[in-house]
Hints:
- The protein is of the alpha/beta class.
- The chain has two domains: 6-100 and 217-270, Rossmann fold; 102-214, Rossmann fold, CATH 3.40.50.1860.
- The chain contains 13 helices and ten strands.
- It has helices at 16-25, 47-63, 74-79, 81-88, 102-112, 124-129, 131-139, 153-158, 165-181, 199-205, 216-229, 231-234, 251-262; strands at 6-10, 31-35, 68-71, 97-99, 117-122, 144-149, 187-190, 211-213, 243-247, 268-270.
- The strands form two sheets. A six-stranded parallel beta sheet has the order 4-3-1-2-9-10, sandwiched between helices.
- The model has no long low-confidence stretch (mean pLDDT 95).
- Bound molecules: D-glutamic acid.
- The site of D-glutamic acid has 17 residues, from α3.
- Residues 10-12, 14, 40-43, 73-75, 123, 126, 154, 192-194 line the site of D-glutamic acid (DGL).
Amino acid sequence: xxxxxxxVFDSGYGGLTILKDIRRMxxxxxxxxxxxxxxxxxxxxxxxxxxQFTLEAVKALFDMGCPLVIxxxxxxxxxxxxxxxxxxxxxxxxxxxxLGVIRPTAEVIGDISRNGHVGILGTEGTVSSRSYDMEISKxxxxxxxxSVACPMWVPLVExxxxxxxxxxxxxxxxxxxxxxxxxxxxxxxLACTHYPILYPKIRKVVPGHIKVVKQGEIVAESLMDYxxxxxxxxxxxxxxxxxxxxxxxxxxxxxxLASLFLDEKVDVSHIDL
Length: 273
Ligand code: DGL
């Protein structure tokens, strides 16, 4: 059987925040990053559309030889993962796998929050799916989960305005909304992979005693653990340390911003889904 890279998918640039930690912790593997920038944001789209777009991306990554795809996108994990795992994968070549980012995050929240008051900041799609409420309550049933959707944050990142003055207003707006809903929160999860790009501004407005959780390391550790438990998948993975990038947008546009988020220059190719 041919070995292949790990596929990492997001609606746009956000998944790069996950890819960065995965590559830092597992540099030996090969990766293909796919950003559907031309159709981002996904956060305000319907269940059916997010599912359809995500399935197209997953199939493209399988076609490029990836036996394993990480949905480095909370919205896609919330709206498409279950359907893909239960309906689409069984009809495909055996052994292909798709993993998301919500379950691994919910699994560690119990160890991070001291008082069980957790805040979720995510896209409208992620928040309205109530996926975090459900996953956290399975593992930590006595926790109180309070969520706020931040529809302006992804457009700020996708349009390279994350460091601009305009972002300050919207960062304070959603953080304050969350803390007004539950002033007892001791942990806030950045439940959208784009949000770590706004982290410096978020950290400034969140009171110091509240932890702000980014998902990159959590997802990377969970992937390492998955591969330890699934040697049959681990053996199917290429280990030449190469990472390739694909976008549904104009490659030049992607290149400029991606290099900023990854602190390195990347070479990206266009792909049609
Ligand atoms: N980065 C994605 C997430 O984690 C989706 C953002 C979007 O396209 O709205 O939810």
